[in-house]
Amino acid sequence: MAHWLQLMVESLPSLLWAGLIFTIPLTLLSFIFGLALGLATAIARLFGPAPVAAIARSYVWVIRGTPLLVQLFVIFYGLPSLGILLDAFPAALIGFTLNIGAYSSEIIRAVISSVPKGQWEAAYSIGMSWRQAMSRTILPQAARVAVPPLSNTFISLVKDTSLAAAITVPELFQAAQRIVATTYEPLILYIEAALIYLVLSSVLSQLQVRLERRFARYGGMLEANA
């Protein structure tokens, strides 16, 4: 067996374990919390009072205007100077959640705004409250449009979690870095890590296609029943 192939086989369990224990949980939790934050931010910007909308806009402006790596450094290395100490994983989770929340809020805000005003009027005409109209009429229609961009955001997040290595989270990429430090084979190990990310992204891309098709069928049924 070639040296490079043997090294890849021997290092694969460690890389996969790091991905299973840290990369995947960090991705899922960050996306779930970020999506909830993004929905709240989008609603605040669209329907909230002026002070709340201004705070939401400022949050999105700051997060979108600064690099994710800098945000992680501020949370993990900067906050201790204020007496706020966070372990690496929670710090990364907060950083990615804030980042996803800002970007997803723009997507959610756009798709909610794209729903025709007639849908609101129809919901109100049958006695729905604002909350009922939002949850039963507006969000289901907006979700169908939001699936592709939000799926792309999720796939990008999988790759962005590699930045957590910079604040000592022992995820997939840092596991590769640690093996490189002992084997002195950066090309082989980093290519292997890249291939794992590629496989994860490819699987998620296929799931995205299936999800889009399902929502397309659901949208067709709604139009047929209209």
TrEMBL record:
A molecular-function term among this protein's GO annotations: L-cystine transmembrane transporter activity
Looking up Gene3D superfamilies in the UniProt record yields: MetI-like
Read off the Pfam families from this record. Answer: BPD_transp_1
According to its record, how does it sit in the membrane? Multi-pass membrane protein
- Matches recorded under InterPro entries: AA_ABC_transptr_permease_3TM (IPR010065), ArtM/GltK/GlnP/TcyL/YhdX-like (IPR043429), MetI-like (IPR000515), MetI-like_sf (IPR035906)
Q: Quick one: a GO cellular component term?
A: ATP-binding cassette (ABC) transporter complex
Q: Where in the cell is it found?
A: Cell inner membrane; Cell membrane
- Please give the start and end residues of each transmembrane region: 20-47, 59-79, 187-207
**Protein keywords:** Amino-acid transport, Cell membrane, Membrane, Transmembrane, Transmembrane helix, Transport
Residues covered by the ABC transmembrane type-1 domain: 20-208
Q: Which family does it belong to?
A: Belongs to the binding-protein-dependent transport system permease family. HisMQ subfamily.
Put simply, this protein is called Amino acid ABC transporter permease
Q: Which organism is it from?
A: Rhizobium vallis
